[in-house]
Design a protein that fits this description.
The complex is a heterodimer of chains A (151) and B (741). Chain A is an alpha+beta fold and 151 residues long. Chain A has helices at residues 22-29, 85-93, 102-115, 121-127, 139-150, and strands at 2-7, 10-15, 48-51, 54-57, 70-72. Chain A has a five-stranded mixed beta sheet with strand order 2-1-5-3-4, sandwiched between helices. In chain A, strand 1 and strand 2 (10-15) form a beta hairpin. In chain A, helix 2 packs across helix 5 (139-150). Chain A is globular. The mean pLDDT of chain A is 97. With 741 residues, chain B is of the alpha+beta class. The chains are: A alpha+beta (151), B alpha+beta (741). At the A-B interface, helix 2, helix 3, helix 4 and helix 5 of A face helix 1 and helix 13 of B.
């Protein structure tokens, strides 16, 4: 089936099969490999994207459900004038190691700060507890989100 | 002229202002960094592996005809299609590329398919008809030595190991020192069990094999060691090594789980057969069965000491379940035995270890590599001994601390840096936070957002442990790292080193060293490839920073000398760095031959605070304070990142991470069922770096990746014992172990 959607502000079309996830459509049909596939069960948050402004795991949304809707991926987070403040802070705080979880984290953290510009540590931990990281132990991610909030 | 040999040049510290940001961080946060699973190429096919559903069975027949008739399918391969050697392995080539006449674990590769679309490949794999005759699986490691052999007897013979003719024994080690029967005033005993942990890296196994049209192949893959991959892949493909070029693709974490081959040979076989690029990517479930795990262990220990607390004798027996294939099991056992007594000086010891083949999932390298299991037992024993003697646990450890000049149970005298007492003192001196008042937010209580308690039934516990591990490969492994440096007339430079960037930041180390040594910021580092430079060795064993820094330093200095000799112009040199030589342990006595079996050591001490809801058995780690012996920290932020991440993995083993198996089959091969620590599980971690330069290492540095993982499981376990008053001899600790149902 053919779907049409807005991805990072651009109108895109794709041929997908009915059971295909939005994640597969983004990665394999639309060439946007920033969203990662690490579990395909909605457990790790590596595929976090915004669907009409709501944070979702792209692996749990059918591509067909996104037909006619707006999707923002990690690739669409940065503006023309450089990285998103959350991305800047991740770089600066050393919150990136292997980086496989990073796209999902920065999308989720940007969503958190949009909803709650001054979160407490507990609020950061809870909001990002759906994103798994195996490298950092989360401490430098916490530092990064605090840093981004402070700016 | 470069600095004369032996002069220690001091690198600029890795503070934010002194060291450039991680060079791959911007592409990673922007979603532009390409991981192995992101690779694609025009005309690419998708490969898929057909795997055994049986832990142990005869393989009677594989019928690809139905799969071959499905749309989009280009090839179905079996062992008959492997043109070269039919088996491979890191130490012992005992693992079939594709099962030949027998399968030995659930998930063993049996056949391969390649198709136009991933979904077609998946359906084709399901359509391959395989006929098995199930056999009784060997699943209990304690009974493995009484069961029929799973591999030809003597498969590990000729390697200088102790002779042990029992069936399914992969290696046995006996370390005997002094008089192991020496009696003390007190004796404590325990039996410990360590569950099977998974590396659970986020980026699944993936690779892209591209035929070169001349019979050779380029393999882009997420791995820890390109050259040893090539040396295993090429013979199986029946190709000379130069026709198999391995290139590092973006690696989404490793932790030991990418030391063994996954998709490398399979993707290459399909690519060479179809003459098309072939991509393979594992899903999460396949990843859990598609790589080796941390060895489950049973450890029997007895510690004897004087009334004053001095260790008199340590007696330990270790049994590791190696699973179906050898992988690096013989070296893991060596480590477990070497560190069975912990970083403590003891004159008398008997340490007996065996690793066996079973039909359980294959085990191999995981961060900590045998020392994790040993530490759980050794530190529990030290806590028990402290309690029996009524001595403060920290004081007991200080009293027995192993320091330079002391000997390990193997007789190896510590000659390098090992500030055990300093590390213990520094960790113990970090102020422990006061208990937090009630009432408080539920996520700051055991049970978290589940809102299971308001504080009733919650007890606090404080634990302490010391972890101890070797740095670099051991026991005579002829380890090396190559680096190639090109100096251009304009003053810029290009450095090649195949050390695998797996997230730990080795590429930043290489750039930092090259810029310092060459005195220029204009240094570029292409991605690692077997086609560009010699072997760097493995990104493992807390060796990579040491070896890569050593090689790059050597090559840079040689390049500068060469340029000075020539008076300028274009210069290109390649140099191979080696650390001090090591020797295999004596197979009869377990005593060191030559001066060392291990190159060097590192120690970490940790205090952990936990809260336990003893009514529900739920636990929460509240705080961790740790001090680690790091030699010299090239990049403080990166070192802290290793400590924090390594601690989190040890926390996982203490509280939640275990692959559960039934008749050899993994029951929880998903992130829904195999839990790794989340943001809510990992507490604030305060880390202190103890810097006593390692004399044998470049800049005095030490590897830092493994000690935090070694120590944290034991430290958290110690805190849980303190909170509950229970022995808690098994990790991960389950709620039932705490409530005692």
């Amino acid at each position: 089936m053919r779907i049409a959607l807005s991805v990072n502000g651009e109108r895109r079309e794709a041929d997908v099969w009915p059971g295909e996830s939005l994640l597969t459509a983004l990665r394999d049909r639309l060439g946007l490999s920033g969203s990662k596939n690490a579990c395909e069960q909605g457990e790790c948050g590596s595929c976090s994207v915004l669907l009409d402004g709501t944070l979702v795991c792209a692996c749990l949304v059918l591509a067909a459900q996104a037909d006619g809707h707006e999707v923002v991926t990690v690739e669409g987070l940065a503006g023309d004038d450089g990285l998103h403040p959350v991305q800047e802070a991740f770089v600066e705080a050393g919150a990136v190691q292997c980086g496989f979880c990073t796209p999902g984290f920065v999308v989720a953290a940007a969503d958190l700060l949009r909803r709650n510009p001054d979160p407490s540590d507990d609020e950061i931990r809870e909001a990002l507890s759906g994103n798994l990281c195996r490298c950092t132990g989360y401490q430098k991610i916490l530092t990064a989100v605090r840093l981004a909030a402070a700016r | 002229m470069s600095a004369p040999a032996g002069t220690r040049r001091v690198l600029p510290r890795g503070r934010a202002e002194a060291v450039p940001r991680r060079h791959d961080a911007v592409p990673k946060v922007a979603g532009r960094f390409l991981f192995a699973s992101d690779l694609e190429m025009a005309g690419m096919l998708w490969g898929k592996t057909v795997r055994s559903p049986y832990a142990h069975a005869r393989l009677l027949a594989v019928d690809p005809s139905e799969a071959l008739r499905l749309p989009g399918v280009h090839a179905v391969l079996t062992h008959a299609d492997v043109p070269g050697r039919k088996t491979y392995g890191l130490e012992i080539p005992d693992q079939p590329v594709l099962a030949i006449d027998r399968v030995r674990y659930v998930g063993e590769p049996v056949a391969l398919v390649a198709a136009e679309e991933p979904e077609q490949a998946r359906r084709a794999a399901a359509a391959v008809r395989v006929e098995y005759e199930p056999l009784e699986p060997v699943v209990d490691p304690e009974r493995a030595t009484e069961m029929p052999s799973l591999h030809p007897p003597g498969i590990a013979a000729g390697r200088g190991f102790r002779h042990d003719p029992r069936p399914n024994v992969l290696r046995t080690i006996v370390i005997r020192r002094g008089d192991p029967d020496a009696e003390g005033d007190v004796s404590v005993r325990g039996v410990y069990e360590i569950g099977q942990q998974d590396q659970a890296f986020l980026g699944p196994e993936a690779g892209l094999a591209v035929p070169d049209g001349e019979g050779g192949v380029d393999i882009h893959v997420a791995t820890q060691w390109l050259h040893v991959d090539r040396d295993q892949v090429a013979p199986c493909l029946g190709l000379p090594p130069e026709m198999v070029r391995m290139h590092l693709a973006g690696v989404g974490g490793a932790f030991g789980g990418r030391e063994d081959l996954s998709v490398q040979i399979h993707a290459a076989l399909l690519a060479l057969r179809t003459n098309r690029p072939v991509k393979m990517v594992y899903g999460r479930e396949e990843s859990f069965v598609g790589h080796v795990h941390r060895h489950p262990a049973r450890i029997w220990a007895e510690h004897r000491a004087t009334r004053a607390g001095r260790l008199v004798a340590v007696r330990v027996r270790i049994l590791l379940d190696g699973g179906a294939y050898a992988s690096s099991s013989t070296a893991v056992l060596s480590n477990a035995c070497s560190f069975a007594a912990g970083p403590y000086a003891v004159e008398n010891a008997l340490i007996e270890g065996t690793v066996v083949y079973t039909n359980n999932p294959p085990c191999g390298a995981m961060r900590g590599f045998g020392a994790v299991q040993a530490c759980v037992a050794a530190e529990a024993q030290m806590d028990q001994l402290a309690a029996a003697l009524d001595i403060d646990p920290v004081e007991l450890r200080l009293l027995n601390a192993l320091e330079p000049g002391d000997a390990l149970p193997t007789g190896q005298v510590v000659t390098g840096s090992l500030p055990t007492r300093e590390v213990i003192r520094r960790a113990a001196a970090i102020p422990v936070p006061e208990p937090e008042e009630l009432p408080r937010e539920s996520i700051r209580l055991p049970g978290g957002a589940g809102n299971t308690t308001r504080g009733e039934g919650v007890r606090r516990g404080v634990g302490f442990a010391v972890g101890f591990k070797n740095l670099c490969y051991s026991e005579g492994f002829d380890d090396s790292c190559a680096a190639r440096v090109r100096l251009h007339p304009d003053g810029s430079a290009e450095v090649d080193c195949a050390a695998a960037e797996v997230g730990q930041g080795v590429t930043d180390v290489i750039l930092q060293v090259a810029r310092e040594e060459l005195g220029t910021d204009e240094v570029v580092l292409p991605d690692g490839s077997t086609a560009r430079v010699g072997s760097a060795g493995s990104a493992s064993a807390s060796r990579t920073t040491w070896m890569a820094a050593g090689a790059v330093q050597l090559a840079c200095r040689a390049a500068l000398e060469e340029r000075a000799r020539r008076g300028g112009g274009e210069v290109e040199v390649e140099r191979v760095y080696r650390h001090p030589r090591t020797f295999l342990l004596d197979p009869e006595t377990g005593q060191v031959r030559g001066d060392r079996a291990h190159v060097a050591f590192a120690v970490a001490a940790m205090r952990a605070v936990v809260e336990v809801d003893v009514e529900l058995g739920l636990s929460r780690v509240v705080w961790i304070g740790t001090a680690q012996d790091v030699g010299y920290a090239l990049n403080r932020q990166a070192v802290e990142g290793q400590i924090e991440g390594g601690t989190a993995q040890g926390l996982g083993l203490a509280l939640m991470e275990e692959l559960r198996t039934r008749e050899g089959a993994i029951l929880n091969a998903s992130f829904t069922d195999y839990l790794i620590p989340t943001f809510l599980d990992v507490p604030p971690i305060v880390s202190e770096l103890v810097e006593v330069p390692e004399p044998d290492a470049p800049y005095g540095l030490k590897g830092v990746g493994e000690p935090p993982t070694v120590v944290s499981t034991a430290a958290i376990l110690s805190a849980l014992r303190d909170a509950t008053g229970r022995e808690l001899t098994r990790v991960p600790v389950r709620p039932d172990d705490i409530v005692g149902l």
